[in-house]
Records
---
Amino acid sequence: MSILPYVDIGLALLVVGIASTTVAARDLFAAVVGYVAYGLLLAFVWIRLYAPDVALTEAAVGSGVTGVLLITAGKRLGALKNAVPDAQPALAFKLLAGALAALVAGALGAAILLLPDPPPSLAPEAAAAADGAGAGLGNPITAVLMSYRSVDTMLEKLVLILAVVGVWSVGSDKAWGSAPAELRQPKATAPMVFLAQTLAPVGVLIAIHIFWTGANAPGGAFQGGALLAAMWMVIMMAQLAKLPRIDAQWLRMALVSGPAVFLIFGLAGELTAGSFFAYPHSLAKPIILFIEAFMVLSIAAALPMLVAGPPSERPDQ
Amino acid sequence: MLLDVFSITAISAGAFFFFAGTVGLLRFPDSLTRLHALTKADNLGLGLVALGLLPRADSALSALKLIVIWALVLLSGASTAQLIGRALRRSRK
């Protein structure tokens, strides 16, 4: 007789409850807070599903970074304040939207219910393949990410860079090259400065630890990178460091370094190991950690740039 | 055995502070008093839970991690409480 099934049911009910309040919330800020709480609860769900790697990513990216992104976006939408529709949509339109939503939900439910038993899975194949080329990595998740499906992992980082370019391109032509607007407009307060000064050194250490330990235990480049990004954001919010100009050479180098190093080693695999994105067996672990280190850098640069938004002209320039 | 009693006592006390903090969060009249209730849950509640878990840690390292987690929550909890308090004072003026 275990209490865990009840915990699971309670957790599932909480997730559904928070999700409904988030969707139903009329206030923009309340909806974002609901979404952050939803992300944290999902992290617990992933832990209960024995997926601590996913849980870490969900907590760091799904609720942490996305939460900051949404709050900042909400603040910038100030003019639209809590988006109250002035005209009710027509009844036919409501019915159509409802029917469409029901259709999608029904299709998703049917897809889950109609899965063959046992469901088709690439997991054994992936584990076997990762065992080959990712030998020496104790964490099968990292082995799969960096060895079995390395092209996907590299393209994910490219998407992040594309997103940053997309955000930058929204800025006006005159502002191109300058820094994004400060994250907090007035002067930083003393508690914020204190928090940044004490938390950031510890946070950077933990981020590096999570990246390093990701080779053998839950953790990895994305989780470590997201934590590093969070520390950089805390420092910029406390105005201990200025936001970089978007035409800064070092920033652009940091952004592309992850996918670039990945691609170079991927191409080199053609010569040294016989196929694109293959690593020589004996050197697999050091090479994977080397590539991951640059991916951490890319992620740590990309996420705060997404939050900071497009470049803006400052009055003092 | 004695350690188990210690763990149960400390974790129960911690759970009590979480409960009291949550009741305060739901029942207190304004944001500043609600903030006051919340910090009890963060600081004392989590502190007691971490204390109760210490004897059950596998190694000295994981015990240290528990303490570090508590310290980090203390730091961020206290700082954000200050920030929220300041924001409230500014909006009241």
Note: The helical segments of chain B are 2-27, 31-53, 60-92.
---
Amino acid sequence: MWVYIARRILALIPTLILIMLVSFIIMQLPPADFVDQYVSREAARGNTSVAGQEEMLRQQFGLDQSLPVQFVSWVGGVFTGNLGISFTDKRQVSEIIMDRLPATLAIAGMAFLLSWGVGIPLGVYSATHQYRAGDVALTGIAFVGIGLPDFLLALLFLVAAFYVTGDVLLGLSSPEFVGASLSWGKVVDFMSYAWLSVVAVAFTGMAYIMRVTRNNMLEELGKPYVMTLRAKGLPERVVIWRHVFRNAINPLVMLFGQVLSFLINGFAITSVVLNLPTVQATYLQATLLQDTYLAGAILVLIAMTVMLGNLISDLLLAWIDPRVRYD
Amino acid sequence: MTLRWNPRGALAALSLATALLCTTAAVAQTYQQSPLFDGMDLPPVADRLPDAPLVLEPVESVGTYGGTLRNVSPEDLGWLRQLIMVEPWAKWERDLNGIRPNTLEGWTWNDAYTEVTLDFREGMLWSDGAPVTADDFMFFWNDMVLNEAIPVTFPGGTVVNSEPMTVEKIDDFTVKLTFSGPNPLFMELASRGHYNSSLWLVPSHYMRQFHPDYSDVTDTAALMAHYENTTRLQQIGMPTLSAWVITDYTPGQRIVAQRNPYYWKVDSAGNQLPYIDTIDTTLATPAAVGQATLLNAIGGNVDFQPRDFALADYSVLLSNQEAGNYTVKMWSRGDFAWPWIMIAYDHVDQGIVDLFYMPDFLRALSHAMDRNKINDIVSFGLATPRQFALSPESPEFQTPEGQALYEEWSNSYIEFDPALAGSLLDGIGVVDADGEGWRDRPDGSRLQLIIDVPASSQESINAMDLIKQDWEAIGIDLILNALEWSAIDARAGNGEMMMRAWPSASGWGLLSAATVWAPIEGFTWSMGGQSIGRFFQTGGVEGQPARPGSMLERLQEAYAVAIGTVDPVERDAALLAAYRIHIDEGPITLGTVGEHPSPVVVSNRLRNVQDTGLTGGWDLGFPGTADPEQFYFAD
């Protein structure tokens, strides 16, 4: 087992380099680069003094070197811990990501706990009371949740909250708490903003988890061993939760692998639209502005979390299901 | 005892009298400071101000100290810089009728406009108390601009006839600049926005620690971060000459600025400015900023918001004025048109270019556009149908002849007359020769116009959809090519682009992007064709020439005349003569609807905010030109 884990972790490295190569190529595809866009943006508002300085700016950013050299130095930098600087505000990429990570993990973590914590029990309930009033209602809610995008829901909540309370719930804190040190007041303020995005994102997630759980449970409930367990006189609660649920959980465990990457790359559009100070919002801006080192570093982070997540879910599956074995 | 004439006594009496007189004069010249400073360990206000502080007449009334100005900005801080960082050597007048001394006390030109002597304010201090002297500018010029190792190029206006100016320090507060040719517009060029002379005065005592020649740093990254206009504001701890100093910055979330104790302006009653203590700005991503400004405005959470409202939200803003306790002042974007259609005379297909050089072709296209419909549908009736023409506030239009010419220019060829358009096209041979429903070229081959539109500008795309319908109604086959901005720039660069719809933009005569009315530079916003502009800019080395004798060539010649004319009256006349080419032989660039209003949300508690302003671009310095340092809260 340990050999297996070690082999998987070692395989991460060439995969990562391949991902970096592909993303680097994609980022170089647009005809303009960061400097062209920067000059365009400034000139469009009147600052024509930067036009004609493109060569100097490219030298500053290292964009004048040949592409293979840029790629090799970037990969080397990532593996030695130097993630580069952001072209837009000249700050260290690692500093930018670390600034944004706590809020991202907090929102995503709460959304995950809420959607799985509510989705699984509701899914089990739905399956055990199939086609009854409760199931029909939950199915309806699930379809709305899966069909409606989470950012649309978030925008609806935003406008509704504004008209009811007059608060503009964009971002994650009131101005006076931005940059303030952690305190009880700050936590309460944070929750008063965070509920908006957490509920919107969790609603979609919960709907999906509920449907998956329901389908798996129904599949298991149709199997002969369930009848046997009931015939043996076991209480329904034990039949459902100790036996059927344990067998139905495999697909959920496989889904669990994606949770790690969801934590830093989920609900990107909602982040941007609600002005949340998250890693996803930074990633989108960086990609649009062709801020290569920042976008590249976040991409590497996402790739790592996807691969590690897959590894974790494979291991969890092996642990839960004795039939699954790796050699 | 006889009274003798005692010279020493007389001298003593005279000096005593003079001293008394001076003391009373000094006592009369008292200044007041904000109560915030009263407990703090600072030198007296009279010592913190320069010997001759700049006196600002308030717009409405002398104000009271205190208050926090709240606003919202996109996270790139663009317009916030226009609120805080606009401190050039000379600032635009509030009504744009010339420039007034700002950080400089004054300047003197010689008759030929080849030398200008700049007088700095004696006693002016940086926000950390260090003195501002000519050495700061000499450091900028010698150690940053002229130093090959530092990536700072010659600023706009400092290079004449391909030669940079020479800078000579006369004394601690006087500097003389010498140009190799007449440069009469130098001060006006330096006054534009927050990125010309606002940047040239650097705190040399502070910057030395980042300069490779004066410290141990090995690269110029930190120095450039402290110099460049896009990163300077965020450098906390850097001394500045602005009314407010940034004290807190959380990227993407919030930026706070506090009053500058060493600010060098007073009001007419001797109160040290600014009146307002703090500027508290909430930051938002570009996608969220429209929501942020709108909701915060109607919720009463902003005190002064001059930009970043979507056109579609204007009516919501106006209807919520009472609920949000604010007033909307309608400033103007001063834009030529949104969109304006640039014609590329350097397109590879010469047959199309032949058509462009025929005035009747573009006149027909102009007459075929139903501008009132575009105005109603795309701009909610808020704009004005107009031809491509510069802004009416431009200096050359301030005379009666100028106004008349402006009226003529902005109204030329804009009547919606499809019949006239059709007959103009018939007259030049653009008829439907093969009977398939579209007009063809005079030689019978297929005519298809392609116009590039930036995919990110929804208003431009909507307007072009309507224009496409109008042109198809007179038989012109038009393809809308919605592309990403950089892709359009690439096409413009290699002659593949035929026409381009550019969103809202504004410009003035010779001061701001002159290349929008004459092909004199090779930028993406140059009219007439990028390579034609580059031909003129490089003196014939790169690019392609305009057709000899064509109106483009004559525009280039007219520009050369205007830019070299030293006398302002003659210069304005030369500009008007150049614009006449647009009227008589144009339209050379097509306009649609322009002069969009720009709503400014002003809290009902805020005073001294003027009613007019131009926020189309940064060059004219708004909102800085409206002197935010004299805004105050009447509570």
Note: Chain B touches chain A through 55 residues (CB under 8 Å).
---
Amino acid sequence: MSASEPAAEPVRRARRRNLTLFAAGAAIFAVITVIAVRRGGLLDLPAAPPGVTAESAGLANLNELTTRGRALEALASGQRSDGTPADSALVQTAAGLAAIRRDDSEHGLAMMRTGLGLAPCDLVLGNGYRMAVLQLRRANLAGAARRQTLAGQMPAWLEHEPIATLERLHAEHPCRETALQLALAWVDELILFGALEIKAPANVESVHQLTELLRQEPMYVPALFGRGLNYLNRPARLLWREGIKTAPDAASHDLGLCVAIGRRVGGAPPQLVATLALALGDAFAKEGHPERARSWWQIAGNTSRDPALTDSIRRRFGWRDDEVLDRLETELASRMLDLDHPLSDLSFMWR
Amino acid sequence: MSPFVRVAVMLLALTAGSIWLRPHASAALDPGVRFEEIATRAGCSHLHSPVELSPRFANIMPWLVSVGAAVAGADFDGDGRTDFYCTNSGRGQPNALYRNRGDGTFEDVAAPAGVACGNPEGGCVHAVFGDIDNDGDADLFVAKWGEANQLFLNRGDGTFSDDTGRAGVGGWGYANAATFVDYDRDGWLDLLVGNYFADSLADASTGKMQRSNLWDPVTTRVMHNTFTHADNGGRTLLYHNLGNGHFTDVAVECGLLFRGWTLAAGAADLNNDGWPDLYLANDFGPDELYLNTGATENPPRFERVVDTSGHPGIGDDWWKGMNVDFGDVDGNGFLDVYVTNILARRYKTDEGNMLWLNLADPKGGPGGRSFWNAARASGADDGGWGWGAKFLDANNDGLLDIFALNGFVSGDPEHTYWYDLQEMVTQTKNNAADTADWPPMGNRDLSGYEPSRLFVQLADGEDAAREVAGEQGGARHVPHFAEVAAAAGITDVLNGRGVAVNDFDADGALDLFVANQSAPSLLYHSLLKTGGPGRHWLGLSLAGRPDEPNTVDGRRFASTASAVGTRVEVTVGPRCLVQEVSGGTGFASQSELRLHFGLGTVDRPERMVVRWPSGRVQTFEGPAVAACVDGYARLVEGTPLEPGQGASAAAKGMPAATRGDTP
């Protein structure tokens, strides 16, 4: 026995202790992981496509969109903009919006159309036009309902808007923004009219157009989000052959891709990230994965402290597994009825 | 601790545990409602006589002639009060049409009204009222065995004319089920008819198909080919109303191909897509659920629900469906389904009635719905040998209850046919299809003398959080019922067949008109004191505007004058009560068209949403709805609510100006 042997014993003991502690820690970690996975589920996020950039994703100029959105609102409200030079398209569109707010609706809408014609691929102006039409059509339907008339009335100048205008615009100026607006105009239809006989074909038409757009721009997040929402908002109870053609996880695929691309390119505001995460959670819930859904709802809650979002997440966490699908359908239906904040309003991207 | 103390503690714990675990003693439960039987006093006691078939079936005659007593409730004369039509199945025996005099009594006016029938060849077994020409009054369809079905047009003066030939609905066969439904939402009532026996059979020697006349049979092989998967029953007919007085059968085009032994039919929107779906309750085989594809296909057809394992029907339904009714019993906004079945524990038959809760289907099944049988967990399964059954709020507490009839053949109680039946079913040498192979029934009893069931939903069912394990795992929330028929004064042991839930005296308390097989009908008058605290209610009489169609995405929809298929949602605190106007659902039964909502303690419902088949939606809130509480309101499509007008002559159909457009 050498002199160093007695000294080595405490070292071995210490090593054993450390090993035991490590093993115990690893075991605890494994247990916690298993419990977490069982309770929360896996995130199941698809990989972002290689080569995706902020530009190809349509997320490159969010700050510019924010500035332009504020300028449109400021000009329409009769305020001075923040020094950003206002082009004639913006001025014309804002003037139209202001006229509509003064109840000079037909004239105002014509002015907005003129403004949009000057910058057909402007996402902010196109969205502004669609939203203005949506609110006008909504007001007409509400008026008809209040009058207890048997048929909903729409004046001729509003009857075919915004689809007719956006179809013409896209034919004359084909770009991804006009294609997106046209596809979302079909979503506006299904938001306004509750009948499934309108919702179903409008949903199909919107999905077809977005699919066509994504064939050319496969990483364009607004289109992916729009199509994902279309899939998500399809009533599960609807009996249609179109449904058979759609993959059961179509909604979570599109919305998951949005989140993955957003994470890759970065720069998205928390509200946008939270909205995407919430929608992805909803998609998983609808596809029969409530545990995975709760993971994403939790992520949405951690990302943004917006009170409305927090409330909606709290409601979702109150749902039992056996009722989550029905409750989600009701929640989505009521969300769709919130015409003060229409589901198809793209301004959440730059607000 | 001394052994004595230990034993004492154990005993105490056991006693406390057993008390805690012991289920509610329903016999001691206050049903919250009492009924008195008044048929004789009220002049509407109708003695039913059964059909009499060929003596070649003598060995099982009691079995074969065990149905035929039916009742349909409707206001045929437009005075705002519910009248009743009762069938009679024996040769030369007339049906009865009990006109409600409004003073608590009835008079039989079937003969002067022209609807007595009398069974010259076959036998009447069912009847349903429906306004097929949209003129604002109820026409009458009578379903028969061995005789052409009949359609009587209401002339509007208290009499009817036989319009069967012109309409083209005089199918010959063994119609046991019928319901009016506007399946394509064109504003005209269509007619679904389910048959029991096949109308034609192959001649044993020649193989040639010929009419199967049970009064003069060519063969005794007339029964079901198996006890569990029979597919040799009668055809299903779907008569499409062309709007010009004529109907055409579109069953095949619409996908209604299965030949089950149909006992009951019903139509309601089960997947909340705005289109009526169909349910056929079949004997000896799977029930049929058909979802309407109208939301996405024009013209609509029906898609039969078959689960991913290839199992047809609504679920594992034990193959003996006698009745169907729809009601949102668990308050999730989707109509649940109640199907009666057979339960005779003494004879090891413990299947029982089925309460199918309508749930979301995470597997993405047809229509996105799945159905889970909660009958046993909820306490609504033991209905004996069940027949007609209906959802209703008997005590106006805002929770749907269930009234279920039962009893098959009452014979010598000392001698049962159950053993013979079981031996036959389990012996492969026997052939169920041939009546000659069946053991003689004689005077043996087969689940006779059974008391009817009133399953009252318990108010604490929700608080008690009755979570039970579902078949696929995961907890399910189910309602909780207690059987209280005897305590509520329903004590007869006649063999009940059809029940019309009604409010013949318009006091807001639902009454029960019961048709009994080979026995007098009964009228159970509710003694519930309505309108007081905890017993508020709201009644609604609806009239659609077929003359005002609505165009949705290029498709033209309209409601029928009788508003069949209209869905009403009443918001009461955190709950939403959902009901749909039915064109006659269930076995040998049709309840009145008016809707009745029990409101419990709530005297100011927040909101009422009315979804018309035309696609129009009317929403009423606050005072407009509150004014309707504790009375019958009237609502004509597209106009304001009219409180207090739903139980008067004014409640009939459309405004007078729009009537008279009979083709």
Note: Chain A touches chain B at residues 145, 148-151, 193-198, 200-201, 235-242, 248, 287-288, 320-326, 329-330 (CB under 8 Å).
